[in-house]
Amino acid sequence: MNVDLHCHSTASDGLLAPKDVVARAAANGVEVLCLTDHDDTSGLAEARAEAQARGLRFVDGVEISVTWHGTTVHIVGLRIDPGSERLRAGLESIRQGRGTRAERIADGLAAAGVPDSLAGAKRFAENPELISRAHFARYLVEAGRAPDVKSVFQRYLVKDTPGHVSHQWAALGDAVAWIRESGGTAVVAHPGRYKLTKTEMRELLADFKGAGGAGIEVVTGSHTPDQYLEYARLAREFGFLASRGSDYHGKGESHADLGTLPPLPQGLKPVWNDW
Ligand code: AMP
Ligand code: MN
Ligand code: MN
Ligand code: MN
What we know:
Layout: E1 3-4, H1 18-27, E2 32-35, H2 44-54, E3 57-68, E4 71-78, H3 85-111, H4 117-124, H5 133-142, H6 149-157, E5 170-171, H7 172-181, E6 185-188, H8 198-210, E7 215-220, H9 225-238, E8 241-245
Parallel strand pairs: 1-2, 2-3, 3-5, 6-7, 7-8
Antiparallel strand pairs: 3-4, 4-6
Helix pairs in contact: 1-2, 4-5, 5-6
One manganese (II) ion binds near residues 6, 8, 63 and 247.
């Protein structure tokens, strides 16, 4: 089955409106789609309506920004209830943190000779409550600071560059609790992307499981085929459900298009098995 359980719309830092994400997924043959905007659920209603009109199965989701022992980790919530009060309040507090973080990013860029980047980033953010580094990146490309989003990140937005600020996101246990309380399933997003040693990765997965986490992404646009196998092994070892998602953000800003990833490796329990 063509299942894609991780993607973004203009409700966070994707380039397509929620209904256009669904249209693209449908065109690519996706049968079950989950929209997982960063720290925000405001795109879900539009996406769900479009999916219903097109006869595509739609699942409510979110990708929550977490800080675990100083490392930023993303936790995807699948089949959440966006109306859940604790989830709503938790996401709102993360978005407020994004607002102050954006001011600090702009201060750092200004000190390096790049003025007015907050106003610039905001022009690229269709949801004024959700400012991501991706919006800064798009503005910096427009301003001619680097040829594309990828190189802008390397020069301006990652560690040891002018626009980098350290930020405290939600606690791992809180994010998992919000997802579970809303009826959802918590999944570690793109585990292969974190700069953790093998020992630290096992610690993260053990903490996540202890907090009530249920799955990990095995096949994602962020993983190499070798990493599909590596995380398949870890899923089996920890008894995690396995998820698959492109993490599509839009043309030119994604490793994988909607619905184009290979199936899960053998011997895994798909997170969508009993849906
Ligand atoms: P934030 O959550 O505000 O820190 O922004 C993170 C987002 O920036 C990710 O979800 C991606 O959309 C984007 N991003 C992060 N690193 C890169 C990169 N190296 N190249 C392109 N986009 C990136
Ligand atoms: Mn993003
Ligand atoms: Mn992510
Ligand atoms: Mn994502």
